[in-house]
Write a structure and sequence with these properties.
This protein has about 450 residues and is mainly beta. It contains six helices and 28 strands.
């Protein structure tokens, strides 16, 4: 059905990869189901540990590691990337390895912080860092191109490590060698069995259609990557130094007053569930024409235990004392609700267990203060008079072990004792997947 639908809409060039999980049962099913075999172009597995299975090879399909890496981008992460880039082909006949993720552009204290090939997590300062995995990538990508083919050789080195050889079919040849030791190349998953690598001299023999034939030897040390190539195109970057790193501003405001924003989402807010987008509120003739709106109204199908609420975080995970102020507009009648929050301690795949100080107001005229996003740890509750389809201003003040809240500039609750978390981000969000608007966000923190 998918292949038929793609073709019907003129998307014959779009190929199908299945099943982006494990090698089985998709490989076995492809061998049994000729119709499915005809429409699947690539078998993709996630984190295969450089290994494949016999059934996958029997299908004669292209094999990809369609998600891999997701490892902290230090020297060990670079070793992981070097090893799997080679050994996914050497051990598993995989001709593509896709890294999750390319650029770590999210708050570092979220799950999988700095698990990108490079890091660019400070849009407020412009700072970025080209991490070691980028240079490992260049050992392959600067000296090959899409359309090159792997040569079918035994890529295992006698002293440990591996090599791959690729050609453009026009006489050019590139050989990439890696000698990563076990402790210098462990990926986040799967577990890596122990093995040994030692310094060695490797000899390579060139035969066939290459212009130059014969043999050559090279001395290899451990934890190294070497590229040997007939190309002369590789070079090191001569880019200017990035701006210096800076902490997130401790006094931050956003009124969202942008008529033609370059992006749909406001800067520095990191949506964990839901989607918060710039919105032009044409029905408001006053101060809230340009707002930020939560726009997802149906809980999506997720691959982890996602939250039932929406939440977007902002700021510095290490903030302790902070005051958050935001204008809010509940659009969902009767059971709608929104919150502002501080000391938010989690997100990503762990968002469902997020703790913090959450100040909720609901369309039924009540409010709650909770210690968690799920709303199960109630610290205080009462009447607020808030209704849907009207703007209100919420203020949350957290100082030490005490928190207080204001509604439209007047105290609504105070002296709520906070035991944990001790620090975290600021946040905004909604009770469910519902329309709601936010404006004039302001946080002061220390």
């Amino acid at each position: 059905m998918l292949r038929y639908t793609l073709d019907k809409h003129g998307l014959q060039q779009v190929r199908i990869i299945a099943s982006d999980r494990l090698w089985e049962p998709i490989s076995f099913v492809l061998l049994l189901d000729s119709e499915l075999h005809d429409v699947v172009d690539v078998i993709g597995a996630h984190y295969p540990g450089t290994k494949t299975v016999p059934n996958a090879l029997l299908t004669q399909k292209k094999l990809w590691s369609s998600e891999d890496y997701s490892t902290f981008n230090d020297e060990v992460g670079a070793g992981c990337w070097a090893r799997i880039l080679n050994q996914n082909y050497v051990n598993g006949n995989m001709t593509s390895t896709i890294a999750w993720n390319l650029v770590a552009s999210y708050y570092e204290d979220l799950p999988f912080g700095r698990c990108g090939l490079m890091t660019a997590q400070e849009p407020w300062s412009g700072h970025y860092k080209v991490e070691a995995p980028i240079w490992i990538t260049a050992h392959t990508t600067q000296f090959t191109q899409p359309g090159w083919s792997y040569l079918q050789v035994d890529g295992h080195l006698e002293g440990g490590g591996s090599f791959v050889a690729l050609t453009d079919g026009l006489g050019n040849l590139t050989i990439i060698i890696e000698t990563m030791t076990h402790n210098h190349s462990q990926c986040i998953r799967p577990p890596l069995p122990h093995y040994n690598v030692s310094p060695q001299r490797a000899t390579f023999y060139l035969r066939g259609s290459f212009v130059w034939r014969g043999s050559f030897s090279i001395d290899l040390d451990v934890d190294e990557v070497y590229t040997l190539t007939t190309l002369k195109t590789g070079r090191k970057c001569s880019c200017p130094e990035p701006p210096p790193p800076q902490p997130f501003p401790s006094n931050y405001k956003d009124d969202f007053n942008i008529r033609n924003p370059p992006f749909s989402e406001a800067p520095n807010f990191a949506d964990q569930t839901g989607v918060f987008e710039y919105f032009i509120n044409g029905s408001d003739p006053g101060d809230h024409v340009f707002t930020l709106r939560q726009v997802v109204v149906q809980r999506p199908i997720t691959w982890v235990s996602d939250a039932d609420q929406t939440i977007s975080i902002i700021g510095n995970f290490h903030w302790v004392n902070l005051t958050v102020t935001c204008d809010i507009y509940i659009e969902k009648q009767d059971d709608g609700g929104v919150f502002i929050a501080g000391r938010v301690d989690n997100g990503g795949i762990y968002v469902r267990r997020t703790k913090g100080v959450f100040f909720w107001v609901y369309a039924d005229g009540t409010y709650r203060v909770t210690g968690d996003l799920a709303g199960e740890e109630v610290l205080m509750k009462g009447l607020s008079g808030v209704r849907a389809n009207a703007w209100h201003t919420l203020t949350l003040n957290i100082q030490g072990a005490s928190a207080s809240g204001l509604l439209n500039g007047y105290p609504l609750w105070e002296n709520v004792t906070i035991s944990k978390p001790s620090n975290g981000w600021a946040a905004i969000g909604t009770r469910s997947f519902e329309f709601a608007q936010f404006d004039n966000f302001h946080v002061e923190a220390s």
